[in-house]
C-alpha cells in the first residue's frame, strides 16, 4: 500500500498499448481526489447548497482535467464519490442527485443544458470534456421516479443510484452505469440487474464498473470475458485493508488475471486509508507522473 501525508491530488498519465485497429496507443489519466465533504447533517440541505458544494469539488477536478489534457491525455477517470463524499442517508443525498439520461438520447449537456430539466452538474462536466477535448468519467448520483404502487419503489417515489457517466471529447454523454454491488450505501438502490456498459472510441473499447463491483462476477468478469473490452474504467472509494484488500495488490492481481487494462481512480483520504491511483497495462511502455 502507498500512503501519503499530503492532502494533495495525484494524477497519473500512462501510454498504454492496446490491441485495436484504429490506434494501438493512448494516454490516460487517473486522478486521486481529496474530496471536500459537507458537514454531517440529518436534515437535507437545499438544492442550491448542494450545487455550491459540488461545484467546489468540480473546481478541483477541472484543474486536474486541464492538466491531463495539456499533457496529451485522451481520457481521464475521476473517483467514486468525488463530488460530495459518502456519509449520507436517502434523504440527505437527494439534493445532490440529477436525472441522468440514457446515452441513446444523443445529448451534449454543455450545448443544451435545459433539455432534460435541472442538470447543471451534468452540463458542467460535459463542458469540461468538450472544452478540453478529452473523455471524462465522473461519478454522480442519479434519481429515477418510480410507481409508488410498485412494491420495490422507495417511499420517496425515486430510485437513487450510484452512477458513473462518461462524456466524450465533444461533450456528448456516451455511457451511464448504475453501481450494482453496493457497500454500506443506504442512500442508494441497486438496479434490478447488473448493467453491462461499454463504449467504443478510436483508441479502444471500454467497460465500466465501480469499487465493490470488482469482487463479484457480474458485471466485472462478464465485461471482459463476454464483451471483450480492452480497458476497464474503475472509479472507487477504496479503503486499503491488510493483508488482502490493499488497492495496488488487489487491483493489479485482478487486471493481470483478466488480462485487461485497468484504470483505477481513488479518493485521497489518508485517515481512512483511502489512497492510490492505479493503472495496469497489458504491455506497459512508459508512464508519466503529473
UniProtKB/TrEMBL annotation:
Check the record and name the Gene3D superfamilies matching this protein.
Carbon-nitrogen hydrolase (3.60.110.10)
The record's section on PROSITE patterns has:
CN_HYDROLASE (PS50263)
Residues in the signal sequence: 1-22
Quote the SUPFAM superfamilies the UniProt record gives.
Carbon-nitrogen hydrolase (SSF56317)
- Key word Metal-binding present in the record? no
Q: Name one GO biological process term.
A: pantothenate metabolic process
| Family annotation (InterPro entries) | Biotinidase-like_euk (IPR012101), Biotinidase/VNN (IPR040154), C-N_Hydrolase (IPR003010), C-N_Hydrolase_sf (IPR036526)
Per UniProt, the keywords (alphabetical) are: Glycoprotein, Hydrolase, Signal
**Lineage: superkingdom:** Eukaryota
Q: Which GO terms describe its molecular function?
A: pantetheine hydrolase activity
According to its UniProt record, which protein family does this protein belong to? Belongs to the carbon-nitrogen hydrolase superfamily. BTD/VNN family.
- Supply the name of the protein: Vanin 2
Naturally occurring in which organism (per UniProt): Pipistrellus kuhlii
